[in-house]
Amino acid sequence: MKPGVKPAPVSKDAKEVSRLLLGWYARGHRDLPWRDTRDPYAIWVSEIMLQQTRAQAVIPYYGRFLERFPTVSALAAATEDEVLALWSGLGYYSRARNLRRAAQLIAAAGGFPREYAAIRALPGIGDYTAAAVGSIAFGLPFAVLDGNVLRVVARVVNDASDISAGRTRERFRAVAQQWLDAREPGHFNQALMELGATVCLPRNPLCRVCPLAACCRARQEGTTGQVPVKLRKTEPIRLSGTLLVVRHGGRILLRQRDAAASRMAGFWDLPAPEDLPAAKLGARIGEIRHTITHYHYTLEVRSATASPTDGDGFRWFTIAQLGEIPFSTTARKALHLAGIVYKL
Ligand code: SF4
User: Whose CA is nearest to atom 2 of ligand 1?
Assistant: First the structure.
């Protein structure tokens, strides 16, 4: 529902879905650290981290992030490198940059906005995050729509429309909005997302334990394996390359990505052979794989000797320093493979 739009009358079925979902959620759900708070800052950080990332992977990052930046003001005062260093490994780094920029705007305005439109206007916040933060922190009656919610809605109403089409998403958003209990929008949204994450699974939905089984049309009509439908699939792009582990006197040689790079600008990475034409290549250490969106990387990891001095984008780091810099995930995986372990 957009601000200013009059809500449609809520049907009996919608009320039933809402009642069943809230009852199920109240009986128990995963104990995730961001569920214990109404602090909009903490909820916002968790929602940004959870975009494209599994809850279990987010937990340690969330704890470290809030320990280092416990308030919006603390985040607003941090340097970009400090924020990126803590985000290293989570991927999709524009999320971290936007988080810091938004924190500066919030701190300058004197506090977290309490209205949907103002939350939505912050950098890096779309409809989903504005609805999640607004409903959980401030009780604003806006239904969230993410991949989990799309799947549940598609199955409950048994609608085989393409969920990558904008029109379908808007229609499904209206269904979720109809279901939403305006007295408990935060719990309702969390319940719907929890159902999608733990019960209404993409491949094998656990219909036998689902609170919505009695009102789910896909279940009744035996089509849970056919909905939701997503037509627009991106073809995978496979890329390969080599990363060099260059060590000298307990230090590691890293190369900084160009400030104008399209991805991960300013991040530190292991050099490739083409970065160090004079390097002497040593033994093959192994191979790592990394996937980001539809890009699938296969990278060979080799030891090498080279002796560039600091400068021209290269720098030698001690192992202890590695946890304090923005550092690419592929480099972390490669160092792990080489047995080089450091603390975050
Ligand atoms: S009954 Fe099955 S398909 Fe329907 S919402 Fe529940 S888990 Fe999903």
Answer: 207
